[in-house]
């Protein structure tokens, strides 16, 4: 699956303003001790991430 494939799939199912500006594929997500996805760690990892110019 590519980012374009994912956007095409979502375009027919969600409102246009809900579509992501960018899709980043990762090998694994950080988890907390209870097994939930750690949004805090994700924010740290991607703090300097810049969106591509449209």
What would you say this structure looks like, in words?
The chain is mainly alpha-helical. The chain has a domain at 25-54. The protein contains 2 helices and no strands. It has helices at 3-11, 39-45. The longest helix is centred in the N-terminal third of the chain and has 9 residues, at 3-11. The chain starts with a helix and ends in a 9-residue tail after the last helix. The mean pLDDT is 93.
Short précis:
With 54 residues, the protein is an all-alpha fold.
Helix-strand pattern, N to C? HH
Query: Sheet with the most strands?
Result: none
What best-fitting shape do the alpha-carbon axes yield?
extended
How far apart the termini lie comes to: 21 Å
User: What's the gyration radius in Å?
Assistant: 14 Å
Strand content: under 5%
User: What is the count of DSSP helices, taking H or I runs of 4+ residues?
Assistant: 2
Q: Quickly give the structural class.
A: mainly alpha
Low-confidence stretches: none
Helix content: 25-40%
Search tags:
mainly alpha, 30% helix, single chain, 54 residues, extended
């Amino acid at each position: 699956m590519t980012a374009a494939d994912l956007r095409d799939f979502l375009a027919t199912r969600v409102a246009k303003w809900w579509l992501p500006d960018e899709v980043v594929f990762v090998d694994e997500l950080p988890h907390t001790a209870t097994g939930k996805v750690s949004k805090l760690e994700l924010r740290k990892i991607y703090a300097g991430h810049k969106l591509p110019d449209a």
